[in-house]
Amino acid sequence: MRETAVVGFAQRQMKDFDGSPSMAELLVPILAECYEQTGWAKKDIGFWCSGSSDYLAGRSFSFVSAIDAIGVLPPVNESHVEMDAAWALYEAWLKIQTGEVDTALVFGFGKASAGVLRRTLALQLDPYTMTPLWPDTVSLAALQARAGLDAGLWDEAALAEVVNRSLTDAEKNEYAVRAGGSSVEELLARPMFADPLRKHDCAPVTDGAAAIVLAAGDRAREANQRPAWISGIAHSSDGLHLGTRDLTSSGSAERAVAAAGGTAGVQVAELHAPFSHQELVLRSALGLGNDVRISPSGGALAANPMFSAGAIRIGEAAKQIWDGSADKVLGHATSGPALQQNLVCVMEGRN
Amino acid sequence: MGKTPAAVIGIGQTHHRAKREDLSMAGLCREAMDRALEDAGLTLDEVDAIVIGKAPDLFEGVMMPELYLAEALGAAGKPLLRVHTAGSVGGSTAIVASSLVQAGVHKRVLTVAFEKQSESNAMWALSVPVPFVMPVHAGAGGYFAPHVRSYIRRANAPSHIGAIVAAKDRTNALKNPYAHLHNEGTTVESVLASQMLWDPIHYDETCPSSDGACAMVIAAEDVAKTYDSPAWIHGTVMRSEPTSAAERDQVNPQAGRDAAAALWKATGITDPAREIDCAEIYVPFAWFEPMWIENLGFAPEGAGWKLTEAGETAIGGSLPINMSGGVLSSNPIGASGMLRFAEAALQVRGRAGEHQVDGAHRALGHAYGGGSQFFSMWVVGSQPPSN
Amino acid sequence: MSRTLQAPVTVAFDYTRSTGPVIGRFLTGLRDATVVGGRLADGRVAVPPPEYDPVSHQAVTEFVDLPDTGTVTSWTWVSEPVAGQPFDRPFAYALVTVDGADTGWLHAVDVASAAEIETGMKVRARWAEQRTGSVNDLVFVPDDGGDSGGATGEPGNEDVDRIITPVSLDYSYAASPEESAFFRGLAEGRILGQRCPQCKKVYVPPRGACPTDGVPTSEEVELAQVGTVTTFCVVNVPFLGQKIKPPYVSAYVLLDGADIALQHLILDIPAEEVRMGMRVEAVWRPRDEWGTSIENISHFAPADEPDADFDSYKHHL
Fold it and tell me: Sorted alphabetically, which InterPro entries does this protein's record hold (chain B) (predicted)?
């Protein structure tokens, strides 16, 4: 594989963004930050790829005007996935692997607050046998959480521990929309929202956007003193139907991490777990031991902007390499109900 | 580091119709996929990854339908990517699938694109009300008709050129059993006599609204070499520009010109009109044939219509265009771009049946989307790429 | 005043879905108060039957009629229901494994509180009296051995092969800050553009990102209310939401002082007399009808001026 690294990352996360659903005006300063970090300009970027969703914006072709933020005359080499920007990053990584380009800028955006997010996401289900019942995503995750409780794989205290660590770490993240640790006891005393999940077990509705810069070889070294070299990146999918898969494990995460070369030596893992129990499913599926530091950014329970939160995990993990905090990290993204799709990006620093 | 050469080894498509009421969305995708797999002599278990494309989710009212389709697509247990680049998506999806092979990540990738337009109403899905503005342009035809008028003015083209294109494509479609429209006896006169919908565009100069899907299996060189007639991928390109920008050329968009120039350069083509044996290009409104002929560099600016008028773009002409009947005869939007790419591949494999162009060794597949601002194209050949 | 203009918008459509043979078989069963499962290649029975076997990938073709009773294998309590759900008061969603099946079926269970449901609980269907062939033809209730109501209603004669699924979503739409300035200007009878600080082009409406330079347009420019028709089409087709009877002209109008054309209507002139290069002026609605909308301008009408030279607008096509 051609050596490729994450060399730039910028993000915005907020409770509610008051601007347009295409978020071009929010992307402008984010892209500017990427240019500043890398010392590059628009013309230095060989390929662009974004991730977003029309249903989040409530209109067809919502991604079309987002590319205005790039400034697209003269025209650019550009693509879009109707997925989290982590998969846009995968497409960009492929493009670099083919040798056609040396650099790429990937971005994702979503204004979840424009609608009722957990209801909108019911449109992700089987349109014949599921969506007519409008099962909201929180309920689906709760069915998954219950399955693990019933199987004895975790208890409510284990979920509260995940939340407490996450919200404590989030205190240091300027972009967290929810932060502030307390104690397992205090968290367990709060009311149920979707039994067995409490509101703090579920990611907050978040608006936001993020961008990541990828580069190959010397271009990466030119842009970043300590690039986060991608040693493995892969993704996989499971079926959607909850009844025919084991909700307490994640086959797709297991396959993705195996294809990405495993997790031996990983010191920090940023996991995209929008529900507290999903972090436990992922730790097990990805084979992350107790010595691995999980989501120092606070993770998705602190802020979860749809269609960029997965990419943000990769960016946050890369930052751990850039500043020398770690030598090997993992960024993870998920998509679809109850962890249906999973992507793993393993990155290394070299001294 | 070089690219792994890749080739199309299997092609399948549905019978396109206004309403495929016999099939669900999954069934529609599988009709195309199963044909592509049979063509390649493979099973879904032998495929490494699935890349799916379609146009806006509002068409079917399912958000990211690939999630619910995962099992039916055989993607449960595999990598699954969903591409959406507006009308060019069928082409972009095929390009992403080829890059998975060219990057050396996978050996056999299945790509599929679909649209089940009968689930809703495209005019509705494309014109969801936006507060503070008002709907004036009446769907895609209303969007593109003013630009057709601009072309006619700039190129000083005779007013029947669109009708020539429509009559040709509808006649070609009679040779394609998969085409949605099989309108016998379409002539220049009958097209000009059809209702003027969005002046200067007549009814018969517009594409239908179709249910349909297209699928291809793309394989790495070592696999493709074991097949007797793979369509080798010589070059791929994508370019985007803004929907609306000051002084943007909407008739001859720069993104299309740049994309074509990059594609010809990458494939070592210096005289595309001579070196390309046939082209399947995205023409949803008949007048876009001469417009794209110029945009692609097959003719100088202002002279595209002369090729059409001279009959050079018919099967048997010097540059046959839209042998399948084109978008004018079948338009399952999300799949329309992939159908263009697939027809180019069918031609160089010599498997286009009655609409085969004799001696087609190198062909262009082309798609565009949005307000003519997203372009995707590929060149495929009967021989492996030399570059 | 908030930074941006916001307004509600509803995206609603009744989708017509053709079901295909497998889903059709399942929904036909529900209409006739029968639960139909599909047999998978590994021998398991799944409800609802998948169209394609998740392991063998083959179309599912063997169906099994099952009882309408089953067991809860997982559940959750919906404390705050959202629109469209089976109940508008708190209720349970559960995975129910129907007796004789091997997989869970996501459905609703009608119990009064979370205390009344648990994993392992036996449930049965409560069928609707009027059934259409939809998953909404039933909900589950605790199995007290009573009648499920399935005997009511006549079996239909024809198989279900189509369903109508209404999708209605409410959104709050916001304009960008730059567009908001434009719409607020319209509420004062002014047409406001903004100049890009880099390329110096005047955009109307202004843009959060200049599509050439990727920076917000900034310097405000009040534009003339007269301009040139660059190009147009005559709309002869009716469409959903149309407010004017065809035929009418939809045109690109390049206002004097702007570098990009606006799309608007040309009226007060027969459609066949509209031409490229025609000079037009804005016609406003009565002031008491104004809002923050482009609809404040009713249309453009011919201005009493000679046509513009083609050269003056040919770069705007």
Answer: Thiolase, Thiolase-like, Thiolase_C_2
Q: Kindly report the CATH class assigned to A118-203+229-349.
A: alpha beta
Q: Which domain holds residue C77?
A: 20-160
- Where are the domains positioned within chain B? 6-121+210-225
Residue C2 domain flag: no
A36 vs C: CB within 8 A: no
Find out whether A81 and A343 touch, Cβ atoms under 8 Å.
Answer: no
| Per-position pLDDT tens, chain C of length 317 | 789 999 999 999 999 999 999 999 999 999 999 999 999 999 999 999 999 998 899 999 999 999 999 999 999 999 999 999 999 999 999 999 999 999 999 999 999 999 999 999 999 999 999 999 999 999 999 998 877 777 666 677 799 999 999 999 999 999 999 999 999 999 999 999 999 999 999 999 999 999 999 999 999 999 999 999 999 999 998 776 677 788 899 999 999 999 999 999 999 999 999 999 999 999 999 999 999 999 999 999 999 999 999 999 999 99
- Tally B–C CB contacts below 8 A: 178
Which CATH architecture best describes the domain A4-116+205-225?
3-Layer(aba) Sandwich (3.40)
Q: Which residue has the tokens 């209507």?
A: C265
Q: Which of C74, C84, C209 lies at the smallest CB-CB distance from A68?
A: C209
Is the CB of residue A180 less than 8 Å away from at least one CB of chain C? no
Q: Is omega for the bond preceding C238 within 30 degrees of 0, making it cis? A: no
Among residues C107, C126, C160, which one ends one of the domains? C160
B44 touches chain C (CB under 8 A): yes
Q: Which two tokens stand for residue B33?
A: 């996929």
What single letter denotes the amino acid at residue C37?
G
- Three-state SS for chain A is CCCEEEEEEEEEEECCCCCCCCCHHHHHHHHHHHHHHHCCCHHHCCEEEEECCHHHHCCCCCCCHHHHHCCCCCCECEEEECCCHHHHHHHHHHHHHCCCCCEEEEEEEEEHHHCCHHHHHHHHCCCCCCHHHCCCHHHHHHHHHHHHHHCCCCCHHHHHHHHHHHHHHHCCCCCCCCCCCCCHHHHHCCCEEECCEEHHHECCEEEEEEEEEEEEHHHHHHHCCCCEEEEEEEEEECCCCHHHCCCCCCHHHHHHHHHCCCCCCCCEEECCCCEHHHHHHHHHHHCCCCCCEECCCCCCCCCEECCCHHHHHHHHHHHHHHCCCCCEEEEEEEECCCCCEEEEEEEECCC
Taking each continuous run of H as one helix and of E as one strand, the counts in chain C are: 3, 18
Q: Given an 8 Å threshold on Cβ–Cβ distance, is B58 in contact with A54?
A: yes
A127 touches chain C (CB under 8 A): yes
Q: Which residues of C touch B72 (CB under 8 A)?
A: 50-52
Residue C134 lies in a domain: yes
Three-state secondary-structure class, residue C161? coil
Question: Which of C18, C207, C249 is the best substitution to test chain B (most B C-beta atoms within 10 A)?
Answer: C18
- CATH dotted code for B6-121+210-225: 3.40.47.10
Q: How large is the C-alpha radius of gyration of chain B?
A: 19
In a domain, C254, yes or no: yes
Alpha helices by DSSP H, B23-138? 25-40, 66-69, 89-102, 122-126
A14 touches chain C (CB under 8 A): no
**Residues of B numbered 223-282 whose beta carbons fall under 8 angstroms of chain A's beta carbons: which are they?**
237-243, 245, 248, 254-255, 258-259
Dihedral of CA B250/A110/B130/A17: which sign? negative
Task: Compare all CA atoms of chain A with the CA of B59 and give the residue at the minimum distance.
Answer: A60
Distance CA B335, CA B30 (A): 13
User: Is there a contact between C208 and A194 if contact means CB atoms under 8 Å apart?
Assistant: no
C145 in a structural domain:
yes
Tens of pLDDT along A4-26? 999 999 999 999 999 999 999 99
